[in-house]
Amino acid sequence: MYFPCLRGRQFELIALRELLEKSLLSKSILPIVEPVKLSSTLIKTIQAFEDYDSKLALVINPTVGSFNSDCKNEKNTHNREKLLEMQRKEFIINAYHINPAVEKLIKTLQECGEKISNIISICENEDYITIYEKLFNMEKPVYNLIPDERIFLRRIRENIVMMDDRFKKKTRNVDYIETEDEPFSSDHLYYSDDGYVGFSDYSIIGNEYTETGFAPYAVAIHIVYFDNENRLRVRHFVSDTNEDITNPAGKFAEALQKLVDWNKSEMLNTYGINEFMRMYDNEIYPGLGTVKKLSLMHHLELIGRYLDGEI
Fold first, then answer.
1. Of 198, 199, 204, which is closest to residue 184 (Cα–Cα)?
2. InterPro entries per the record (predicted)?
3. Predicted TM-score (pTM) of this structure
4. Taking Cα atoms as reference points, which of 255, 308, 310 lies closest to residue 29?
5. pLDDT tens digits along 49-67
């Protein structure tokens, strides 16, 4: 099973919602969304999981973004109450970062009658393993996301999910020109043999989070694909005229031309790729958020097909 960790940015949420609406999100994928804002897009996306009878994991104690302060703002009362209402339903699995502040949350959870066996833990810091052991010495979470490191494996042994950031993020988009094509992940091939019940990463977005974006000098499209041994690789399609921030539509057209030429031999056929082809044929520039959305949709659909035995 695949557990993509997404930071709840608008394009990530819309990607999930559109995959659900098009029946392209496999039941073998359980998205873990860490909400960074209490937005109407977040509420609509969570509602979509209930509407399409699918499970979603929601991080209750996000470590980035303005979600916590948004919840305290009176103008967000409607969204907060709607979120609390949906959190009580079975289609949402509560997920918790293990850190010094989580103990109070878990105790409150138990006082409300919630079972530990229904939650997901995310333990990425070696110093916090002791907190995990203290909280879950009797009953274990349904899934425990941990790095593939011996110090974690020695002390957290049940229901473990291999977690890593497989996207090698560059400082600037133009830097991807130096490594046009590179390995992405083989976790889907070996997680079971290594004793895990699933694998997790941050897709083609990466773990790094920033509050605000900026106009890039270059446009880059990141597309994952399987090689001849079913290992996932990622190919970066980067624009050519990268001297300044002007003409993003032209830069996108340059990067898209490379993707179209490459796919003539690769023959990838997902919704995300087909949308890129449609934009090429119709000379459409959708904006950088949509570029990321389609790349993410392609990755999740491709992995879903693999896990469902269609590849």
1. 204
2. Sce7725-like
3. 0.94
4. 308
5. 999 999 999 999 999 998 9
